[in-house]
Design a protein that fits this description.
This protein has 15 helices and 20 strands. It is an alpha/beta fold and about 425 residues long. The strands form 5 sheets. It has a 7-stranded mixed beta sheet. Strands 2-1-3-4 form a 4-stranded parallel beta sheet. The chain has a 4-stranded parallel beta sheet with strand order 6-5-7-8, with helices on both faces. The two termini are about 35 Å apart.
């Protein structure tokens, strides 16, 4: 399985990376070279190809361009590991035979202090430029140049190649903080693992289970024309997914495809036009999406997911992935994410409790009534009351007051939920 790499950086670093990539016969590298970090966005926008991996020479070009990385592609940069610092310090010492005053960038002051303490050279004088939120190489160049011109430093050690080139052209003593071949090799291996995992995930078997519930006509029973409209929509959707399709007599349609195709067609599970009723269409259409390592497991998850969708009000879609996590209703602002693992244990952390925790995180609120829980989670108020009672017994929920009623009726208690304790309870139970 060949993996395509876009190697992004200045020529010096790109050449070093590609030299290491020659050791990996299954990698197909493409060089994307810039003169200055500020040009990285333009470089990526001009590239017509989509690569499996976008491999950046450093964190600055990586951070400047993450919104341009295509979906389903991996991106990473060669991190700072400390070996670059050892390498440049050896170069400086070999050149001067003593430690001059050095102006650094790209290395936190804490790491510099630890380094010089460890080599028993804590008397060495140095400056460190904070690179948090780095945007402007011109500003960094001016910073180093000013320190050198005023005599505060004797040498510059920079991690930005364009700054290195400008300082060098102006005869400022400068050294380049460059990754070692071994660090590049280690990062390439990490990138390969990420890309293979991504490809395996995109190729994962995915089953879509549709359930049609057409309106009932008083004279003719089920509305045949509506059923035919739904069938046509599902058929067209199936073609977009390159899916094989089966159906049954109860209004169920099953589509078999891969995760990568479904994510692309549905824009990462956010868009489901197939579920929208057109003119004259009555009844409901629901969708369950299941993923798994085998067809049987994916189909089982899809059947469970469509049951969640049917229980939801109106047309909706739910997903159960290979880790038994539920997402739904998809394509709405109220999409929840919770796990089904251990749901058969019968203990405190039931599916409903995990769903409640997800809902509370979504609404960013921890003071609620049972009525709000009932409406927000599409469940009965008695069930909401049972969940609150269990949390009270665990010390996770407490009554803090009651709602004011503008109409007749008994005021409902307002409960404060300790989200931290609830998250700990869910985490403990899900990871016994």
């Amino acid at each position: 399985m060949n993996i395509t790499f876009a190697v992004i950086g200045p020529k010096l670093l790109v050449d070093d990376i590609c030299e290491v990539l020659e050791e990996f016969p299954h990698i197909e590298p493409t060089k994307l070279i810039y003169d200055s970090e500020k040009n990285v966005r333009e470089l990526l926008q001009e590239s017509m190809d989509v690569f499996d991996v976008y491999f950046f020479s450093g964190d600055v070009p990586f951070l400047l361009s993450q919104d341009l990385i295509p979906p389903h592609s991996c991106s990473l940069f060669i991190p700072f590991e400390g070996t670059e610092l050892y390498k440049v310090i050896i170069q400086i010492y070999r050149h001067y035979h003593f430690f001059p005053i050095i102006s650094f960038d790209g290395i936190p002051a804490k790491h510099l202090k630890e380094f010089f303490d460890e080599i028993e050279a804590s008397n060495v004088q140095w400056y460190s430029k904070n690179m948090d939120g780095f945007q402007n190489s011109e500003e960094l160049y001016e910073h180093h140049l000013a320190l050198w011109q005023e005599g505060s430093v004797q040498v510059v050690a920079t991690s930005i190649h364009s700054v290195y080139q400008r300082l060098k052209s102006n005869h400022v003593p400068v050294f380049f903080l460059k990754s070692t071949k071994q660090l590049i090799r280690d990062t390439v291996n990490k990138a390969l693992w990420m890309a293979k995992e991504q490809k395996n995930q995109l190729a994962q078997i995915t089953v879509l289970q549709f359930k049609i519930q057409p309106a009932v006509d008083g004279q003719q029973g089920k509305d045949i024309s509506t059923i035919e409209k739904y069938q046509k929509k599902i058929s067209e959707f199936s073609k977009r997914l390159f899916a094989s399709t089966t159906s049954d007599d109860s209004g169920g349609y099953t589509l078999y495809t891969t995760r990568g195709i479904v994510e692309k067609v549905t824009k990462d599970f956010t868009s489901f036009p197939v579920l929208k009723n057109g003119a004259g269409e009555l009844g409901m259409i629901n969708l369950g999406i299941g993923m798994g390592e085998t067809v049987e497991r994916a189909l089982y998850n899809a059947n469970r997911a469509v049951d969640f969708a049917v229980r939801n009000q109106g047309n909706s879609a739910y997903l159960i992935d290979d880790q038994m996590k539920v997402l739904g209703p998809l394509g709405t602002r109220n999409t929840l994410n919770y796990s089904l693992i251990d749901e058969q244990r019968g203990d405190f952390v039931s599916t409903s409790i995990r769903k409640l925790f997800s809902w509370l995180q979504l609404i960013q609120k921890n003071e609620v009534t049972t009525r709000e829980i009932s409406v927000g989670m599409n469940t009965g108020e008695r069930n909401a009351a049972r969940m609150v009672q269990k949390m009270k017994e665990k010390g996770i929920a407490e009554v803090i007051g009651s709602e004011s009623m503008s109409q007749r009726g008994r005021p409902r208690p307002i409960y404060r939920i300790d989200l931290h304790r609830l998250s700990q309870e869910v985490k403990v139970r899900n990871n016994p």
